[in-house]
Design goal:
alpha/beta; TIM Barrel; 8 strands; globular; Putative N-acetylmannosamine-6-phosphate 2-epimerase; Aldolase_TIM; isomerase; carbohydrate metabolism
Length: 229
């Protein structure tokens, strides 16, 4: 039986509210306001990074909150340790997003140790995967759901222009747990294509909550148009 927190996002949109280091929007208060805004727009869930952001967002939204922390930018950096995962639960995350790859973790613990600790603390686990083998490993470790988040970023698959629909379709066909589509979903049509391919829910970040990247797409298009006139 699917936990009610996970069931609340079935067939719906989850919005990733994160800002990169050094950006003007890198502030818990700003991310909390962004989270409120996307919920007002109909998002069924929010994905957020950083304990301070999670603590700021939790009291302000009543939707499913997927939380994570990032340590560095290479290797296993998405909620890499058992301690990090427990901190996310304590900060208010309903679901903790963790690196779901088969790579060694900084604390030397297997993924199953993180999953067991989060479950004992009352939370659920979303495994961010880069391949079918990652997903199978994560499900065997006890993950409640998996995401295509790392597809194209671990060296096992090429980086696709849009969402990796081939991997999504493969995971949906072979896994008994919900599969969330995440990564390079650039517009509503691509989000819909993920649901059609069988995604349990769709997670969109940059295309909704990253003004710098959104603005760049406009400026680049205008520059291209100007050069072709």
């Amino acid at each position: 039986m699917i936990d009610s927190r996970l069931a609340s996002i079935e067939g719906r949109l989850v919005v990733s509210c994160q800002a990169y280091p050094g950006e003007p929007m890198r502030s818990p208060a700003i991310m909390a306001a962004v989270a409120q805004s996307v919920v007002a727009g109909g998002a069924a869930g929010v994905r957020a990074q950083g304990l301070e952001d999670l603590e700021a967002i939790r009291p302000l939204v009543d939707v499913c909150l997927i939380g994570l922390v990032k340590r560095g930018a290479d290797g296993v950096f998405i909620t890499p340790t058992v301690e990090d995962a427990l901190d996310c639960v304590a900060a208010g995350a309903d679901i903790v997003a963790v690196d779901g790859t088969r790579r060694d973790r900084p604390d030397g613990q297997p993924l199953s140790a993180t999953v067991a600790a989060v479950h004992a603390a009352g939370g659920l686990v979303m495994a961010d995967c880069g391949s079918l083998d990652d997903a199978l490993y994560s499900v065997a470790a006890g993950a409640d759901c998996v995401g295509t988040t790392l597809a194209g970023y671990t060296g096992e698959r090429p980086v696709t222009l849009g969402p990796d629909l081939d991997l999504l379709t493969e995971l949906v066909a072979q896994l008994a747990v919900p599969v969330l589509a995440e990564g390079r979903i650039r517009n509503p049509a691509e989000a819909q294509s993920c649901l059609i391919a069988g995604a349990y829910a769709v997670v969109v970040g940059t295309a909704i909550t990253h003004p710098t990247r959104i603005t760049q797409t406009f400026t680049q298009q205008l520059t291209t148009t100007d050069q072709t006139v």
